[in-house]
Amino acid sequence: MTILYLLIPLSLILLGLAVWAFFWAVKNDQFDDLEGPAHRILFDEDENDLSPEQRRQRQQAKSPETSATDTPDDQEPRP
């Protein structure tokens, strides 16, 4: 019976630590993307791994290349 005097406070301390760890994880955005890692493994190069700034830079780098080379077949390229 005297062991309960040790186990009850110990369990309350562990519960408090678990609650603190949960709120810390929520505050630090650990639960923002739950499905992303599961889908990311299926793709070789995934743009979700990049920051928004890196995505914009990659799209800007792609757009001049595609606009210069993509001309319809019925139009001649302009000199």
Task: Name the beta content range.
Answer: under 5%
H/E element order: HHH
- Gross morphology: rod-shaped
Q: What's the total number of strands?
A: 0
The Rg value, from CA coordinates, equals 27 Å
How many helices?
3
The helix/strand class is mainly alpha
Major sheet attributes? none
Q: Indicate the low-confidence ranges by residue numbers.
A: none
Report a brief summary of the structure:
With 79 residues, the chain is mainly alpha-helical. It contains three helices and no strands.
Description of the molecule:
This protein is mainly alpha-helical and 79 residues long. Helices cover 59% and strands 0% of the residues. The chain contains three helices and no strands.
Write out key terms for the chains shown.
single chain; 79 residues; 3 helices; mainly alpha
